[in-house]
# Entry
Amino acid sequence: MVGRLMRGQERGRKLIVLLVGLLAGCASTFGALGTGAQGLGTQRTVTVRELYRDPLFSRQDLQRQGVTCLPARLSFGHETYGHALVQGLTDTLQAQLAGKGLIHPNLAASHINAVGLAQEYATMLAAYDRTNILERKTLRKVGQAVGVEYFAVPILLNLRERESTRLSVFGLRLAKTSRITARLQLQVWDARSGGIVWEGLCDLTLAQEIVRERPVQLEEAIRATWESLLQAIPPGSVPPAPVEGER
# Structure
């Protein structure tokens, strides 16, 4: 009886030692990553497609003629992401354009309201949701009021957030994967012509192995997506390809 009890205690001590060793291994991983590190590793997959480009348009035009962001277009069920998308695009434009040419959307809204265009602006946006067209006359008025020639429109087509346990010992979760997959689209409209000068599509997967209760931040995924799309816009104008027989 006493022998069985001692053997049971010995097995219990071995299990405790094993668990402590696993936890120590996780702690040493944190030390290698540096103070405050939350993840064991991050994987990012980004695919960008240019859907349309005016050959005379470039990122330099945004700096020279000015740009602001319109409200985000959101797929059904993602209505709560609107502010994060616009703020992420605004911050990324600020960084990509070195602070030149960008009018913050809040300031743009103040300018629009100050000149009495609030109702026309709202009507234009409502019509855009139905027709995919920004009405040229109103767009030009709004551009003049804000002092920009370009409008960036963020579009969220799909977004999923998931978590899955990757390592579990005795019912205790030691590590898991936090994953975000997103598909976003960006349109740039010319207030003078009323047409799209650039449009791109981005698919992003951001996955991180975590051992603390910190999922992949949505802001990280949004910022990575806008950075990839804006970098796809040529920094300078690209001449159109020569027509056969004109060489």
